[in-house]
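Justification of resources, computational component.

The compute hours requested in this renewal are based largely on the per-chain cost of generating structure records like the one below. Each record pairs the submitted sequence with a full structure-token output. That output is archived, and it is also reused by downstream analysis tasks.
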Amino acid sequence: MQPGPLLFSIFATIGAIHAPAQDSVLSTQIAQAWDVTWSRFYLPQVQTFGDYLSSYEKGKEQAHLPTAEEVQRQYPNPCGYSTGMEDGAILGGAMLSVLCDRFAVTGDEGLRAQAAQVFAGLKLCATVHGVRGFVARNVCREDGKSVYINSSRDQVTHLAHGLWQYYRSPLPDEATKKEIRVVLADVAERMIEFVTPENDYDFCRADGKRCPLGICRMWNVQAHEAARLPMIYAAAWDVTRDERYRKEWRRYAADAIAQSANPGENKPAYALLQMQCSLEVLHELEPDAALKATIHERMTHVRDLAAKRFASVRSQIAKKSTEEMHVLGPDWRDVPVWKNQKGYLNPQWGPYREIWHLTREAGESAVVLLMIDPASVSAAQQSSLAELIRRFDYAHNSSCGIIYHLAAYWKARRNHLLAP
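The structure output for this chain reads:
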């Protein structure tokens, strides 16, 4: 039985009585983070987000991005690793989730246009190359069409999760929903075609060749990756209701959940977040009560792992000086050390990598805490998240991890855990 209007009114009154007092510092900080994200990291030419800043000077923040000529010759590597074009699909999917949560809290109609922009960037990543169902990491800002040919399951995970959340939210119009159905169906079709035993379950690069790094394999993978494939099929089925995708989802679901039992104690926050994103879709859509309960158990375990990671990262950030946290990323062309990874030359960022990573991990791990049973987030964890945001200097932050700080804040707000 669903609660009636009177009960909803009572719940709202109780929520208002116990709502946190307004925190002007927190709201000011988040407003600054929002502005920095859109003014410095957003690439309006392709409607995507870049990975890092190499300058705080207006107009030069991402001057390091690859040129069209460099991307066309797949330089420095076919993944675009370390160039600033590495994680555009991931960041776009994450930002769509942020926009859904913020809209649920504020009802701000201006968010519709921003969500449409982010979706346009993700659609560009999935279509500009003309390879059906392939999700490019990002699109070259200079020419608006060149892409690196090696994607990853991580890119597809966040794209599918973000589009699924966006589709189910009040934000998109019917024309946009139709486009979402096409994109998710195309991704699912590529998985059906390429993720086979003959390809070692690899969805392959844009040129149809196997990925030499193993990052495009969708089955026979680690525990934190096992739910990715059925999640993609489930999301495609949910928006299209095409029996073809339901069949594939059910084919893999139970086995994937069994494989997800022990992701390991030391996984980075991005791995835990992507695992939780996959499980969230499967948990929401699972029709079998017993399997749904098992998914809930898996998500609770991932949350507990993320809680340890959040505490650890907060401790590490506290030990860094202001100067260390303000450091800018390099122009990857000038980095002296390049690592050869299975034939792919990857510029190494040196000490900057840690700062970029800590900023991101703080937000990612906090988001994971809020994705299942948010009422179980302790007062101490809420306070720690609020303190992270209050003390962070977003005006001098060069890491795309800022998006996950926004994600944690708005998801907490959506669940009535932080002050407005």
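The first strand starts at residue 42 and ends at 43. Residues 1-19 have pLDDT under 50 and may be disordered.
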